[in-house]
């Protein structure tokens, strides 16, 4: 059973890696994961400058969906979304629902360029992000027991 689980995880990671390798780039040679209706999603730079940004801590199990919310103020043009669970043996899926009704994703661990138990994304829109309540849909894709995460 453990061997089968490891083979499934490796196959899943390989498929995600191949799909990430086909991502396009913008004029700055930055990898674009998604581009839809003015929203451009790219891997976020790993910085420690999130001082003052509220993070939510929660836990999730296999097949469970958690909804987390973020209010985006009018005039914002960029947003960092960082789902971090830190355990590469478990797999979470992130779908972002914008305040103006767009669905971005789903996104998986390797979509930001690294398999590290984290989905770290930057969302840009030069015309401005939709102000209001954004929803983060976190799904326990493959979780052994319960997995803690922050977003």
Structure characterization notes:
The protein is mainly beta and 151 residues long. Helices cover 13% and strands 44% of the residues. The protein contains one helix and twelve strands. The protein has one helix at 2-21, and strands at 24-25, 31-32, 34-36, 39-43, 57-61, 65-72, 78-84, 91-97, 103-107, 118-124, 132-142, 146-150. Strands 3-4-10-7 form a four-stranded antiparallel β-sheet, with no helix packed on it. It has a four-stranded antiparallel β-sheet with strand order 6-11-8-9, with no helix packed on it. The longest helix is centred in the first third of the chain and has 20 residues, at 2-21. It starts with a helix and ends with a strand.
List SSEs in N-to-C order. Answer: HEEEEEEEEEEEE
Oligomer: single chain
Biggest sheet: strand arrangement = 3-4-10-7
Please indicate the percent range of residues in DSSP E strands (runs of 2 or more): 35-45%
State the secondary-structure class.
mainly beta
- Low-confidence stretches at least 5 residues in length (pLDDT < 50)? 6-29
Q: How much helix, percentage-wise, in residues?
A: 10-25%
Mean pLDDT: 83
Most strands sheet = 4 strands, antiparallel
Q: What does the radius of gyration come to?
A: 15 Å
What best-fitting shape do the alpha-carbon axes yield? globular
Distance between the terminal alpha carbons, to the nearest Å? 31 Å
Number of helices: 1
E-strand count: 12
